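Look at one such:
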Amino acid sequence: MALLIVACVISLLYCGGYYDATSDYFHDVAGAFGDTAVATGLAMGGIVTLLISIVYMLCRRLISFKDTMACVPEGLIAMAPAIIILTMATSLKTMTALLGSDDFVTNALANAGALQNFLPAIIFVVACGISFATGTSWGTFSILIPIVIGVFPAGSELMLIGMSACLAGSVCGDHCSPISDTTIMSSAGAQCEHVNHVSTQLPYALTVAAVSFVSYLFTGLIRNWYICLPLSIALLFGVMIVLKRTVGKDSVA
């Protein structure tokens, strides 16, 4: 695992021009990461890790060369369902982007100044919806963060709360989305049926999302984290206690 991480990081830097003296990002880590080709870099890192692992196994005589080569197609077959789902998910994400989802959300929130106190909760729900539909939290960041900055006054408490709602909602929707790459790879890595993985994690994520929505409602009105954070934690614990009693009774019955 350590070798895979190191190989992927080096490959991403290479694709971003970190080692190229003619590149604009020569020895610029941040610039190279920002301009890298992620798919190519990760593929290169995976191939390098595979080759080094094969050599390591052969040198230690833990496996024969014939058995090593036999494992390669078996691994490809095992990953075929995840690759197909990722391909279809990428197609859906591209289609959503081409339909102009970012312009739609921008126009919908552009004239919401009269609801500023409730905008954090609204932004949270919108972020959840966009990231769930597109399967990407970072793509949702790029859509909503400029809107949040434009809607709220610069440096205001509401802007910080709105930014928090944007980030939290984006991560929540991405976590729940069946077309998210992290969700797909999690189910594939655990050898769990993808639909079962999504359906079993939804109750937990949606419970926290509902508590967060209510918390952002009163946070937009109170705007004091010394009060809002303890209230939110207390609300979450209260919901957990209620669920434990009700679900426990139903399970016994």
Summary: The radius of gyration is 23 Å. DSSP finds eleven helices and no strands in the chain. The chain has two domains: 1-64, 97-252.
